[in-house]
User: Fold these one by one.
Assistant:
Number 1:
Amino acid sequence: MGYVSARGGLDAIRAAERLVRRLRLTSESSWLEEDQILEKLRLLVDRVMGEAGLWAPRLAAKALRQSEGDATEAVHLLRAYRSTLPRFAYSEPADADDVSVERRIVPAFQRVPGSQLLGRSVDYTARFLERQSDDLAREEAEKLRSEASGTPDDERSEAHADGDTPQRSPQRLLEMLREMDLVVDRRRADDPEPFDITRTPARPPAARSALLSSMTRADTGALVNQWYRNILGPDGYLHEVTLGEVRHGAIDVEVRHPVTGLPVCVSSVRVTEVEAIEDLEGVDEDRTKFDVGYGLCFGHNERKAIAMANLDIACHRDAGRTQLEQSLLLTTDALDSAGFLEHLKLPHYVTFRSMIERKFAMRKARNRDAS
Amino acid sequence: MTLSALSSRDSTLVFRSLLTSLSSPGEKVPMPTHLCETMPPRALPLLALTDIETTFCAPDDPDLEAEVAELTGSRVVSVADANFVLCSTPPPHELVLHVGRGTPLHPELGCRLIVCTESHEGDVAMRLTGPGTRPNANLSVSASADEFIAARNIAVAHPPSGIDCWLVSANGVVVGLPRTTLVEKR
C-alpha cells in the first residue's frame, strides 16, 4: 500500500514554534513599539478588540505584534487571554445616548437634530497612494504639529458641517421619526437579562441580544459578506436601506462599588453605533412606517456597525423564513470559522487512511461483482 | 500566610502552570515561585480560576474558604454542586464519588478537584497512560492517596463525564490528572 501513516513529533512542533519566535524577534528592522501600533494602526487595533470582545488597546497591540499582523491570530490570542481572566463584576447598563460623539453623520437627513459632525473620515477623499518620501512626510508631520499646537480643536471645527459648536450628545433622528409616528415601536416593557455568548453558544432561534452580541463580535469581513449576500445575492432580499445614524464616540463603563454600592466609572470605551432605517413593504407589515435596525461595536469600525444594523433588521423581518439567523450565529465568528478551517492542516492520517481503505474495499467489491 | 488577590499577570501564570499540568498528565509542574513563597500553594488554583461566576468549597479548611470567597467573589456551595473542590489531604472515597461529574452533554460541568499532598514522592507507584502522557509516565503517591486514586478512577469511568484533578504539593508543584488519563498501579 502506497499510503503510510506518519507520526508527528513533539520536537518538530517545538522547533516550528521556536522558528516563528526567533524570526519575529530577530528581524533586522527596529523594534515595533506598542505606541506605534496603537497610533498608526488604530483601526486594526479597534477591529481586533471588537472581534476579540475585549477592550484592551495595549493588549490588542501586543497581540498584533505577536501575530505579525495576522488579525485573526491576534483575535485568537486576545480571546484566549480573556478567557483566563476572572470576572470581578458586571457593568451597569450603559445608555447609548451618553456616548460623547467624535463623529456623527445622518445620511438620511441634511438638517438633523443636533448636527452633522464629520470628524475623522476618508469617506469623501480620493484614494491616492501617498508616495512621497519618508523625509517629506516627516517634514509635513512637523509642520502640522506646530500648526495644531495653538488650536487643538481646529480639525473638529473644520469637520463640523454646520459651522456651529458641535453637540457631543445630539438628539437622534429616530426620536424625530417617532415624534412623526413614522416608526414601528418595537420597544419592550420588560428588561430580560442579555444573553452571554461568552458563556453559552447562541443557537437559533435566539434572543435579539444573542444575535446582536454575536454580530458585534463577528468577523468584519464575514459580516459585510453576509450583508451583501442578503441585500443583493441569492437570498433575494432586495430592499431600500438608509442609515439614520452613524456615530463614533466614547462612553463610560460603570460598575457598582463593592462597598458603597454606588456606580463608579472604571473605564471609557470607544464604540461605533449605527441605526439603519428600513422601508417596510411586506404584506404583513405596516407600510406606512419604517423599522430600525441597530448595530454597535467596539472601536471605530463603521463598516461592521452598518452591516450589523442592516442585518439586525433583516433578521427580524426574515423571521426564520431563510437561514439568515443560522448563518449569522454559526458562521460569522472569526475564531470559529478560521479555527475550523485551519484544523484541516493538522494530521488527518487515521481518517484519510480509512477513506483509502474504503476505496480499496469498494474497488474489490466492484471487481468481484464484475467477475 | 494570608491570601491576597492575584494580579491578572499572576493569575495567568498560575493558569499556565495548571494548563500545562493537565496537558502533560503526571509531569511535575512548578507554580510561580514568587507566589508560592507568599501564599499557601494550595490556594493558588482557586485564586486564579474562581470568580463571581464559579462555585467552590474547601470543606476541611473553612478559613481559607472564607478568604477565597471574599477575594474572588466566588460562591461557596456544597461539595456536590461545586465547580472546584479543595481538599487539604487526599479526600476519602465518599467525597470523591460525591463531587459533580457533569453529564455526557455537559462534561465541562465536572468538578475540578484540588488535592494537597506533602510531596509527589510516595511508596505506591502508578503508571499513567492516555492523551498527553509521556511513554512510561509515572506517579508516586502515598498510601493515603492510593485510596483517593482508586475513587478517582471510578469517578472517571464513564467518559466524557468525570472529574479533573490537581495534586498540589506543599512546595507548590502541581501534577495534573485529567479525566482522560488512565491511572493503574504498577
Note: Confidence is low (pLDDT under 50) at residues 1-6 of chain A.
Number 2:
Amino acid sequence: MPDNQSHSDSIAGAGEAEQPVKVQARDVCVSYSGKQALNHVSIDVPDRSVTAFIGPSGCGKSTFLRCLNRMNDTIEGARVTGSLKIDGLEVNDKSVDPVVLRANVGMVFQKPNPFPKSIYDNVAYGPRIHGLALSKDELDAIVEDSLRKAGLWDEVADRLNHPGTSLSGGQQQRLVIARAIAVNPEVILMDEPCSALDPIATAKIEELIDELRENYCIIIVTHSMQQAARVSQQTAFFHMGNLVEYGTTEDIFTNPRDPRTQDYITGRFG
Amino acid sequence: MALSKTAHIVTAYGEELDQLNDELARMGGLVETQLTTAINAIARRDAGVAGEVRQREKQVNAMQVDIEKRVLRLFALRQPMATDLRMTISALKISTDLERIGDLAKNIAYRAKDLSAYPALGLMDRVERLGAIVIQQLHVVLDALSSFEVEPAIRVWRADDEVDERYNALVREMLISMGEDSSLVEPGVHILFVAKNLERIGDHATNIAEALHFMVTAAPLEADTPPAS
C-alpha cells in the first residue's frame, strides 16, 4: 500500500494501532451550500479494528462518515475537498464508480432498513447485481456465510423466504449487516447502529462488531459513550466540524488531553 | 473544590461527586485526629485515650463503608468517565488507606496505654519525633487532596525515605539497648510496635499521594516523576 504509513505531527493517528492504515484522510473539508460542516480533517484509520466517532449532534462525525462512501454526492450543494484514500486509492477520483465504492464500503444505518423482500433476497441482492455468484449454489453459500458472520443464521435458517421486515429490530439490523458483508466490503460504516435497539439486541450487535473487526475496518458513529468505550479500539472526538482529539479508546476515556473532549465525555458544560 | 473547572450538565451527578469528595475529606480529618491523639498520648504518657480512640475508630469504619457505597452507586448509575472516573476510583483507594491508617493509629493509642506503665525512656522522644514526621506527611497529603495539588503529594512521596531511615535507625538502637539492658525488652517491644505502625502509616500516606497524583495527572507516580513545579 502506498504512503499509508506516513505519520506527521499534524495528522491524527491513534498511536497504538498495530494494523496498517486503511482509511487515510488529509485536510478533508465539507460544506453544504456554502455552510462549512467539516474543517480540515486529517486522520489515519487502521484496518481490522473498530474506530468510534463521537461528538455532539452536528459536530461533523456523520458528515465525515458519508464522505467515505461518497454519500455526500447525492446531496445538492455538498462540496468535498481534500484527500480521502482507502487502501491508497483516492475515493473522490473521477475514475471511481460510486456503486463499486459502496460495495467496498458497506454502511449500516440507525434504523434497520431491510428491502421489502425475503431474508434470502435481502442478502443475495448485492452479490447478484455485482455478479459475485456464478451459480445458485454459490449464491446460497454466500447467503449462508454472510448470515453466519452476522450471527443470524441459526435464527433464520428455517425461514429464509420470510420477509426481512418480519424479523425483530435487532434481527433486522443483523440482517442488513449480513447484506453489507455479502458483497465482500473492506470497510463497514455504522451510523448509530444500535440507537433503535433494546439492550439485549444492542449487546448482540456489539458482540458481532467485535467478531467482525478481525476481518474488516469498522467505523462506528455513536452517541453512546459507553458503546464507544465498549466496542472500539480507537476513538475520535469531533466538535463543531473539527477533529479535536483522536487516540486509543482507553486514553480518550481515562485521560483525554483536550478540555473539550473532557467536558463532552464527562457530561459537563463545555 | 472540584477537579474540573466546568460543572456537570446533570446537577445531581455533580453533587454526588462533590459529596464523595467531602466525605473523603471528613474521613481524612478524622483519621488525622486519631493519629494526633495517639501520638500525643505516647508523648504525655496518657493511658486514658483508648476509649475515645475506639469510638472514633467506629466512625472511621462507617465512613469507609459509606464511601464504598457512594463509589458503587456512581459506577452503577453514572458511569463516570475521564477525570470523574479517576476521581471515583482514587476515592475508593484512598478511603481504604485512610481506614488502615485509622486502624494503625488505634493500635498506637493502645500501646500508649501499655507504655504508660513503664518509667520514661530516652528512646521515647525518638518515636515521638518519628510520629511528628508521619503526622506531617499525612497532614500535607490530605491538604493536597482537598485542593487537588500534585506538588505537595510528590514531596510527601519522596519524603517517605526519611521515615523509613528513621524507623530503621530506631530499630537498630532499640536492639542494642535491649541487648544491654533486659529490663528494656518489655517497653521496647511496645515502642517497636509503635514505630512499625508509624512506618506503615507513612507508607499509606505515600499510597494516598500516588492515588492523588493519578487522579489529577492520569499518570502513575514513579521514581522518575519530575517535581510538579
Note: Chain B touches chain A through 16 residues (CB under 8 Å).
